[in-house]
Amino acid sequence: MEKQNVAPATGKLGVLCVGLGAVTSTFMVGTLMARKGLSKPIGSLTQMDKIRVGKGADKKYMSYGEIVPLTSLNDIVFGAWDIFPDNAYEAAIHADVLKERDINPVRQELETIKPMKAAFDQNFVKRLYGPNVKEASTRWELMEQIREDIRLFKTKNNCERIVVIWAASTEIYLPYNESVHGNLTAFEQAMKTNDTINIAPSMCYAYAALVEGAPFIMGAPNLCLDIPAMWQLAEKQQMPIAGKDFKTGQTMMKTVLAPALKTRMLGLSGWFSTNILGNRDGEVLDDPSNFKTKEVSKLSVIETILDKEEYPDLYSDIYHKVRINYYPPRNDDKEGWDNLDIFGWMGYHMQIKVDFLCKDSILAAPLLLDLVLLSDLAARAERYGIQNWLSFYLKSPMHDFEHQPIHDLFVQYAMLKNAIREMGGYEADQELD
Ligand SMILES: NC(=O)c1ccc[n+]([C@@H]2O[C@H](COP(=O)([O-])OP(=O)(O)OC[C@H]3O[C@@H](n4cnc5c(N)ncnc54)[C@H](O)[C@@H]3O)[C@@H](O)[C@H]2O)c1
Known about the structure:
CATH class of the largest domain: Alpha Beta
Shape: globular
CATH superfamily of the largest domain: NAD(P)-binding Rossmann-like Domain
Bound molecules: nicotinamide-adenine-dinucleotide
Number of helices: 17
Strand content: 15-25%
CATH topology of the largest domain: Rossmann fold
Distance between the termini: 21 Å
Radius of gyration: 21 Å
CATH architecture of the largest domain: 3-Layer(aba) Sandwich
Helix content: 25-40%
Mean pLDDT: 93
Order of helices and strands: EHHEEHEHHHEHEHHHEHEHEHHHEEEHEH
Number of strands: 13
C-alpha cells in the first residue's frame, strides 16, 4: 500500500461558521461535549463509521482517522459571524434545541465564542433584523472586511488552517446571471461597482474565504458557489468548495426511497412533501422569495434519480410538490410528511406515507462536523475545486455545466468511501458492504 501525499493535520483548525443559529450552536455544543467525552458524535461518519480497505483475506475495516490524517476534535477552534450579538451559549439557549443540562458542561467555552459583525443585506433575508452588521460602501469592501476577520481570527487563535462553513439563513432566490457570474473578472468588477442585485452577501464570504486560503462550504441552497466565477477562484486559489444545502431529513429519505422504486421498476405518479417547522429558519422560509431558493433545491432530487427519458412508462408524468409551513409551536422539531403515489404490475395504484418527526439541527450538526473535517482534508490532499465526493451530505450537490449531480444516497456513499480510500493510498472499488 502506497500512502498518498496528504499533508498531516498539525496545529489548530479554525472553524468559522457564518450564522450562529440553531444548527451552528447545536454543532458547536455537540463537538465540545464529544471532545470532553460527555457525549457521542452520533451521525458523524468521520467519528463513527468504518470503511473496508483491501479485499478477500486482506480486507479490514478501519475508521476514517486511521485511513487518512484527520484533524482531531481537540484541535478545533470555533468562531462565527451573526447579525445578532449573542454568544454561542446564548444562541444555544435561544435555539432551544438542546437541554440546558447538555449545554452547561461547556458553557464557559461557548461564552467565549462571540459572533463577529455579519456581512448582511436585508434585501436577501426578508424577515430578519439584527444590529451586529458591517457597514461598507461596496460589496468589495464588505468582502475585504471579512478577509480581515479571517486573518485576525487565525492569528489570535494561533490556527494553522481555516475552514469557513455557511449555516446562516437562506438568501432569496437569485437567478444565475451570465454577465456577472460567468467569469471571475466580471464578478470582481461587479463587486467593485457594488452590484447589490447580483452579488449576495454569501458570495462575499465565499470569495473572502477562498482568497484567504480556506475551503468554503455552502449549507443553504443559495446560488453562491454555483457559478463559474467561484469555480475559477477555487481553482486559482487551489481550494476545495462544497455545496449546497445540507441533506438532512426529508430529502435524505427521498434519496433513499426514489432509488428503491427505480431499482424495482415501480412507477411514480405523484410525490407530495410538506413540512411544519417553527424555528427561525422556518420563519425565514415562510417568505416566498426565500422559500423559492429552498424549493428549487428540494425539487431537483427525484427528477434526476427517476430518469423520465430512459423510463417514460414509469416516470414521465410525476406531480412533485414541496411545501414548508412555518408553525411556531414545533420550534426545531420538524415534521416532514410525504405522500407517494406509486404504481406497479398492470398499472395498479398504491401509496406510501412517510411521517418523519425529526429534529432539524440534530440531523444537521454531524454533517457540519464531517464537511468541515473532510474539506480540510481535501485541502491538505491538494484536491481543489468542486468536491463531488462530498455530495453525500448535500441536497443539491454541486456540479459544473457539463455534469449531472448524483443524488442517490448509496451511490454518494460509495463515492465518499472511495475518495477516502484513495487519499489513504488504498484502491478504490465498487464492492458493496
Ligand atoms: N437544519 C437542517 O436540517 C438544515 C438542512 C439544510 C439546510 N439548512 C440551512 O441551514 C441554515 C441554518 O439553519 P438554522 O436552523 O440554524 O437557522 P437559524 O435561523 O437558527 O440560524 C441562522 C442564523 O444566521 C444568521 N444570519 C442570517 N444572515 C446572515 C449573514 N449574512 N451573515 C451572518 N449571519 C447571518 C441569523 O441571524 C441566524 O442567527 C439555513 O439556511 C437552513 O435553511 C438547515
